[in-house]
Each structure stands twice: as structure tokens, then as C-alpha cells.
Amino acid sequence: MSNHTEWPSEIEVADKLASRLESLGLDYAFGGAIALAFWINPRATVDVDVTLLLDPTKPTSVLQCLGQLGCNFDLEKSVSLLREHSFCHAKLYVRQIDVFRPNTSYYEAARSRSVRRRQIETEAWV
Q: Can you list the domains of the chain with their CATH numbers?
């Protein structure tokens, strides 16, 4: 972890999250500033955006996955957000994770363009 702080940075959290997702064999891709940093100069971020490419007809599968990953979240609020908007919020360590689940054909197109990139220790999908 970073020497300058007691909490991991967003990229360190993304790296830990990728390692856990990989060990569970789950299909995912990072987005937002984490993914952008692999293509251009990175921009500041305060969260980690990740799409869990799970069955879109089963929103609770996202919450089961988050529990397996060691994330904290408000169950009732998360179920409501997933059903209404196909995303929810969680925390890993103290960092916010914005979690998206596929709900349109956009995600299939994005999945086909995903590439593997090394973050810190873990190669991840972005």
C-alpha cells in the first residue's frame, strides 16, 4: 500500500478488487478514471468504477458477488438501485466502488473491446 497514507489509493483498491475477481473467476471490467489511466495521462478519481458482467436478470447476484469480495454495502438500498438503475455503491476498505451490471447491448459491445492491462500486481480487464 501507499507509504504516504494508511488507506490504499483507488488504484490499489482496484488492484485488490481485480485480484479477488480473478480468483473467483468472475467476468468484469473496470471503467472510469481507472480504465482511462491505461490510455492517457491519468486524472484524479475518488472511486473505482467496475462492471460485473453477471446475469442481468438476477440483480441480487451482484450483491452476492460483492459480499464474496469483502465489500460493504447497504442491502436494501443496493437492491433498489440495481433494480431501478442497474448500479449500486459499495465500499472496499474506505474507498467507494461504483458497481454496474449489464442492462443494454452497450455492455456486450464494451466487453468485446475490453483488454487486459497490469495495474500494480494484478492484470485486469479494462
A: 10-125 (3.30.460.40)
